Amino acid sequence: MTIAEVLLCDFDSEAISTRRVLERVPDDKATWKPHEKSFALNHLAVHVASLPMFGMAILSTDVLDMATHKFPKYEFHTAEKLIEVAAGAGAELRTKLASMSDEELQAEWTLRFGEHVVTTGPKYVLYRTMFLNHLVHHRGQLTVYLRLLDVKVPGIFGPSADEPFGS
Fold first, then answer.
1. Which of 85, 99, 152, 157 lies 20 to 30 Å from 12, alpha-carbon distance?
2. pLDDT band at 164 (very low <50, low <70, confident <90, very high)
3. Is 119 in contact with 112 (CB distance < 8 Å)?
4. Residues β-bridged to residue 64
């Protein structure tokens, strides 16, 4: 099995779970925050939906300088739009990943902020840590927001209190 094939298994599973969470983001609670230091719901949801663009940057560049690179800005409008953004960016990322050889995925990638190097390592490692784990982390935050807003939380790695097995 190639590195890309392994990463695609993870990606496909996480994309399905992410879609299930984004579908439940309430359109009428966009500016809600669980705490003054927390992201607003709209900011967190857009971040989760657009993270595949960061994964794409990892796979398609050798260096990403966050001091000069600007990702497209999306504003929260509806859960439907979140799903559209995630699906489009995810499809592009999936296509790129599927086309990559083990050699390409083992090439070095660097994330920097101007002169400050944040991290350097093989693309496949940083894809997993900087993109995929990042996605799972923020999707988990989003499920907590849903719970606090009394929105049914989907089962992701098994049942949830709202979606037990057998229901």
1. 152
2. confident
3. no
4. 111
- Of 117, 46, 34, 122, the residue nearest 84 (C-alpha): 46
Q: Residues within the annotated binding site?
A: 47, 134, 138
**Residue environment code for 74-99, b if the CB has 16+ CB neighbours within 10 A, otherwise e:** bebeebebbbebbbebbebbbebbee
> In the structure, what pLDDT confidence band is assigned to residue 150 with cuts at 50, 70 and 90?
very high
Which residues are annotated binding-site positions for a divalent metal cation?
Answer: 47, 134, 138
CATH topology of domain 3-148: Four Helix Bundle (Hemerythrin (Met), subunit A) (1.20.120)
Burial bucket for residue 138 (CB in 10 Å: 0-12, 13-18, 19+): middle
